[in-house]
């Protein structure tokens, strides 16, 4: 199925390539600017009908040109409009200069803007293409607008937010709404950009789909279009082993809860059979709480090898509440020819020598899924974690290639990346998933998808989306235990 244009995500660099291709094809670039600016004006009138004044803050580039067009359209509609410019009129070029020429009112320096009661700010200063810290005079205006709690409608993306990474470049507007054109940018989905952009409207200004689709996208938004074709349908011949056998490793006697939640989540996510592999000290504690999940006594590497003699068992989850880092390292290496979801303590076990893990899974198809949060990511990939020049997508992709693994880089803006260069941002998740045990549930869900035959990238992406859907269904008071009860079937294409 073809991804709808509204679901595409293009970086500022890719969007610039689209603009160039549109101009080279004969499309009037100023006509595109007019449609963009008029869409901004329409949104301002629709969402702020009671505004006493629209303060249009324009920048020195095409984003500012959109602002001048919006100012003209608002004035024609009878609104009170004041325009403020960062820079000098004579420095404007191309379409931005044409748009400025169309505004017959006064243009004042940006520093002259003082928020008033009843104002709505149209932020048309920089948009998504900014790559440097905002000037101090703009930062001062941003601070004044924030203190005055004046609503902000941003053109493309709040000025001060990097459209590629979502990072704040010194200071940024906090918009109630952003109007972007043709596609969203990564900064609309990556934090903190997502929290600053407000409601995002994608407006079609007339660039043909063929031009948009000709430019490679670095990332997509996670959703059923990414993995829905891989969702498994049961047939009359299905049995529990055909639906997949997953093994989850338990920690010691006082550390059994995390693994049980992973195992229960896997069972609720469709695995045909789930076993909990536990040391002797943890068998009784686990047996008290489990019914449909089988218990296997695995004390050491030798007993693990006995378990691996059963060729039907191909998928494992290791790490939640495991505790013993030395044993976790040994177990993970023993599983290098199987599918493995490595989480929590399983990741930390390789902090001293990540290449030991990466080399073990380097050959063949991708069968390792890593699920680090920010701290765990830094343990395996310290150089990537410290590189402020990389976006979260860049970091996840570099990590996936290095580890020959699917990397699910957790957070409010979870990124899932594959060694082959595919990456998605998962925005389908409520903030109340930030609770103890939520990650253990996610690990079990990924394991269930792998056990059922989904490829590693699709298994992880589908689990992240499904995990978010369960969070929405469970509501603000969810716990990891109640989250499991709200796991719904995967949608299929």
From TrEMBL:
Reactions this protein catalyses: (6R)-NADPHX = (6S)-NADPHX; (6S)-NADPHX + ADP = AMP + phosphate + NADPH + H(+); (6R)-NADHX = (6S)-NADHX; (6S)-NADHX + ADP = AMP + phosphate + NADH + H(+)
GO molecular function: ADP-dependent NAD(P)H-hydrate dehydratase activity; ATP binding; metal ion binding; NAD(P)HX epimerase activity
Domain YjeF C-terminal positions: 223-493
One Pfam family here: Carb_kinase
CDD domains for the chain: YXKO-related
Top-level division of the source organism's lineage: Bacteria
Cofactor: binding details: Binds 1 potassium ion per subunit.
Needed co-factor(s): K(+); Mg(2+)
Keywords: ATP-binding, Isomerase, Lyase, Metal-binding, Multifunctional enzyme, NAD, NADP, Nucleotide-binding, Potassium
Any one GO BP annotation for this protein: metabolite repair
Its EC number(s): 4.2.1.136, 5.1.99.6
Binding sites annotated in the UniProt record for AMP: 410-414, 439
Positions that bind (6S)-NADPHX: 62-66, 127-133, 156, 258, 321, 373, 440
Domain YjeF N-terminal: 15-213
Residues given in the record as K(+) binding sites: 63, 123, 159
Protein family according to the UniProt entry: In the N-terminal section; belongs to the NnrE/AIBP family. In the C-terminal section; belongs to the NnrD/CARKD family.
Role according to the record: Catalyzes the epimerization of the S- and R-forms of NAD(P)HX, a damaged form of NAD(P)H that is a result of enzymatic or heat-dependent hydration. This is a prerequisite for the S-specific NAD(P)H-hydrate dehydratase to allow the repair of both epimers of NAD(P)HX. Bifunctional enzyme that catalyzes the epimerization of the S- and R-forms of NAD(P)HX and the dehydration of the S-form of NAD(P)HX at the expense of ADP, which is converted to AMP. This allows the repair of both epimers of NAD(P)HX, a damaged form of NAD(P)H that is a result of enzymatic or heat-dependent hydration.
Subunit record text: Homotetramer.
Protein's recorded name: Bifunctional NAD(P)H-hydrate repair enzyme
Originating organism: Xaviernesmea oryzae
Lineage, opening ranks: Bacteria, Pseudomonadati, Pseudomonadota, Alphaproteobacteria, Hyphomicrobiales
Recorded name of the encoding gene: nnrD
